[in-house]
Design brief:
It is built from four helices and eleven strands, in the order αββααβββββββββα. The protein has a five-stranded antiparallel β-sheet with strand order 1-2-3-9-7, with helices on one face. By secondary structure, it is α+β, with helices and mostly antiparallel strands. The chain has a single domain, classed as Sandwich (Immunoglobulin-like), CATH 2.60.40.
Length: 209
């Protein structure tokens, strides 16, 4: 390469640098140059879950024209439920009392989802008459939070359902016998539910638990 050619190339290079320095800045929102590499996010870890339906972890009883369903919202119970059921019930528990209680709780209220339904129009129900018997002690609800509208009417239309979250104090032990009482009707089937729940929890892979 001759000396004159070198001078021409050097001048051209300096002109290009000067042009780039004088070029207008890119408008807001526009980025020049290579796009930034997308940030990788950690994959979500699946929570422990079984495959049971809500009716399989609930107590069902009939009192006259009333059909009553009582579903414990304890975390270890929900663990045995199918993912969609578990997530739905967990959201209800969090919205109406915080973290669901574990077995042998330390005084934290135990939460239950309770529903009243009837095939007969105009059927009345008394929310406060639903009690639980645990360790030989009868527990009455310390709080009731309605979910469905019209709960305060205490009357059901035909094929309608009234739903609320019940909070029970005391030291309920759901891992043992629990009797659901509504007026003069009792149901002691929970012990059988516990066996099904524990068997399902035992099938959940350890790596997920």
């Amino acid at each position: 390469m001759t000396r004159d050619c070198g001078r021409v190339l050097l001048a051209a290079g300096l002109s290009a640098v000067a042009f780039a320095a004088c070029a207008p800045a890119p408008p807001p929102g526009e980025v020049r140059g290579p796009a930034a590499a997308p940030r990788r996010t950690a994959p979500e870890v699946a929570l422990p879950s079984g495959s049971l339906r809500q009716d399989q972890i609930s107590v069902h009883m009939v009192a006259g024209a009333l059909r009553i369903e009582v579903t414990p919202l304890a975390a270890w119970v929900l663990e045995a439920a199918a993912p969609d059921t578990r997530d739905r019930l967990a959201r209800i528990a969090e919205a109406h009392g915080g973290t669901p209680a574990e077995p042998g709780n330390d005084g934290t209220p135990s939460l239950f989802l309770v529903s009243f339904s009837s095939a007969q129009p105009g059927t009345e129900f008394q929310p406060d008459d639903l009690h639980l018997v645990s360790r030989g002690l009868r527990e009455r609800p310390v709080a009731i939070r309605a979910i469905t509208p019209g709960w305060g009417n205490q009357r059901l239309e035909q094929q309608s359902t009234a739903v609320a979250v019940y909070a029970f104090g005391g030291e309920l032990d759901l891992s043992r016998e629990l009797i659901v009482v509504y007026r003069d009707v009792e149901d002691s089937s929970w012990a059988g539910r516990v066996a099904v729940i524990e068997a399902e929890r035992g099938r959940i892979p350890r790596r997920r638990r």
